[in-house]
Amino acid sequence: MYAVVALFNLELEQRIKMIWKGLESNEISYYAREVGDRVPHITLANYKDIPVMSFIHKMGTFYKGKEKGRVDFQTIGSFINTKTLFYSPTITEELLDLHFDHHRNFASFIDDEESVYLPGKWVPHCTLANRLSEEKLKDAYNYCKDE
After folding, report:
1. Cβ(124)–Cβ(99) under 8 Å?
2. What angle do CA 68, 57, 4 make, to 5 degrees?
3. Crossing angle of the two packed helices 134-146 and 10-25, in degrees rounded to 10
């Protein structure tokens, strides 16, 4: 499994990591610890199996010179079926264009027509916690709302 993710500047990355640590120290979620070296991000696309070197070459060409964008989190959301809590960025034309342009330029690599990251299915988000019980989901929401 492969993913293309948008990373944040150091300030926002550190802020979200502090929220992950707070969720852990309050025994609400251990999301940040589940995968080594996890960094906050927004997933733009995912792939099951791709010709890696060809994909990397195309990534270098496509993303070379791309301007950094602004991300503004104003919403806390939840994927109900997976009990995942996340911050959702304000949907801007710039964010939608980045996502759409990626999928248009990498259409030949799409190998999962059911992917939730495809245009029309995508809910941009930065995961804060996942696989929570109902009680922990409420606790996580209250903690993240206040942070």
Report:
1. yes
2. 50
3. 140
3-state SS, residue 21: helix
Q: Walk along the chain (147 residues) and give the pLDDT tens digit of each residue.
A: 899 999 999 999 999 999 999 999 999 999 988 877 889 999 999 999 999 999 999 999 999 988 888 999 999 999 988 999 999 999 999 999 999 999 999 999 988 899 999 999 999 999 999 999 999 999 999 999 988
71: number of Cβ within 10 Å? 18
DSSP-assigned states of every residue in 69-99: ----EEEEEEEGGGTEEEEEE---HHHHHHH
Residue 47: closest CA among 125, 103, 127: 103
Enter the tokens of residue 110: 């799409």
- Global model pTM greater than 0.90: yes
Dump the DSSP string for 97-111. HHHHHHHHHTGGG--
